Amino acid sequence: MASLALTIRETLRYRGAIGQWSWVLHRLTGLGVVFFLVIHVIDTSWAVFFPALYEKAIRIYQTPLFTLGEFALVFAVVYHALNGLRIAIFDFKPEWWKHQERAAQAVFAGTALILVPMFIGMAYHAIQHYSHDPFILPLSEVLAEQLPFLAGIVVAAIGAIILAFVYNMVMGATEPVGPAKAQGSALERFWWSFMRVSGLLIVPLVFGHLAAMHVVQGVFDLTAAQLRVVGVAPSTAEPFTLEQTAALLNDDSARTENFLNGWNDSGTATEFVAERWSAMLGPVFIWRAYDIALLALVTIHGFNGLRYVLTDYTQGNAVLRRAAGYLCVIGAIALLIVGGAALLSAVPQDAIKMAHEATRAMMMAHGGG
Amino acid sequence: MEVTIRIKRQNPEMPGKEKPYWQEFVLKDVEPTDRLLEMLHRIKWEQDGTLTLRRSCAHGVCGSDAMRINGVNHLACKVLMKDLGPKVTVEPILGLPVIKDLVVDMEPFFAHYRSIMPFFVNDTPLPEDGRERRQSQADREVFDDTTKCILCACCTTSCPSFWANGKYVGPAAIVQAHRFIFDTRDQAWEDRINILAEPNGVWRCRTVYNCTPACPREIQVTRAIGEVKLAIRRRKREGIVNTKDVVIAAPGG
After folding, report:
1. Percent of chain A with pLDDT over 90
2. Would you call A19 and B210 a contact, using CB atoms and an 8 Å cutoff?
């Protein structure tokens, strides 16, 4: 960790050119996106596993702190995407190095250019929401709800350190001495290529995701009753009337599938997810397939990037170095299991009713309407 | 002109000076065309004889006076005072243990250099005339740029990956490997790319591009690293280096 402090201090002191700052920002934005990814995948899985928790998670997203975070997140994703393209281009065309400074500037300019319309769209949603006296969870509760995530990350890190410590105790802390003749690491070679190929695949997927979930419709629209659900062809010309929806919610025999019509009739985030995950394009659940591809690519790309960062700064300590690798493998597998299980499960038949109940209870508890 | 030179000093053998500290020296009558190395000499000879630095040829050939000057790595003998302004900071290059003042222990750097087999390997019998192994001009161009390295460590110690992790083989060693990997007469190129494909080989390069402007010989360092990465990825050395932009000097010109 001493090497991390030294690198931070000396990076600020060394008068490197723009490439150095691109590198700093690439790491920071990458770390930020991975951190949010962990929260986001776990949250979203609750739409299937714990609809009541999911409703609360979305209400947390609809608070000023997370609105600010959303702008930072979108910046991070867009910058990381464009800068990653720059890195990949110069990796495959190293002889273009003379243009790299201009390319790094172009990445900043391109990021700004893309962010202007996106931020206008996002700001429009935010202003619409906050100017109508919405239900806002208090900040203390928003922060308290993040503690389990932090605790989980800390527990995972401690677990990885213990595992690494035990491994080094049993197997010895020295690095295995390879054959006298170096063979080269096929694994590192694979990861180098994977980061570039997956990056290229992620860019269109993530821009589609940002456009749909942050610009066309924002996180505030997830709980707007009678709104079309983005990316889903409606099966009825109009949403259910409020009376029809109320009747469905009070009908003990009504099931999730009775709500599905391409409109978010109940105004629950759970119905929003159920609508999207039931949308078909030909024989496939198109948004489930889309999200599975995005989840797999982003999780593996993100946690391998995290491994790069962590192992860069833990080389001086045999336990931490090993723990960094374990943490990334454990994190990636856990996230793929949680997210994958949600994406491959049916939304429970009582989910929307549970979500509706939970929303009402939450608003009652906070004196909202 | 008058110039203030701030030098980061350290003397592990002297009680009270074990930790790094900054010391300022003021020099009068500095000519714009003076080189920084001469100013360091003036400080050592006229003001403080304990100032310690390494230099040999003083003409940018031996590569012994690499230091961080105004925040960037350079050879002190190749930097003119007019390009530095009236306030100059000088400190040792980063990532190698400081022995005294501006002198660092280069051994870890040379260990990485030795690790990539920096020598010509060809066990086939010599040509009939018993003299040199001939090579076409085009084949020679491919590694022309990387023959210029003088092992001053400016590039390696400008690299944030090397600061963080001294096990990373570093730009200079990769440049030296490039010189042999892409030499068609050399037969050990596969051994070298296997060495550089280890986890602390080329993969620690994050294309920060600090090394390229740091090189006093204007070697295209990051490009050379990129070409070695491609050689590893494709497991071949042909068709990777694009020599279209290499200008061959006309004979006598």
Report:
1. 88
2. yes
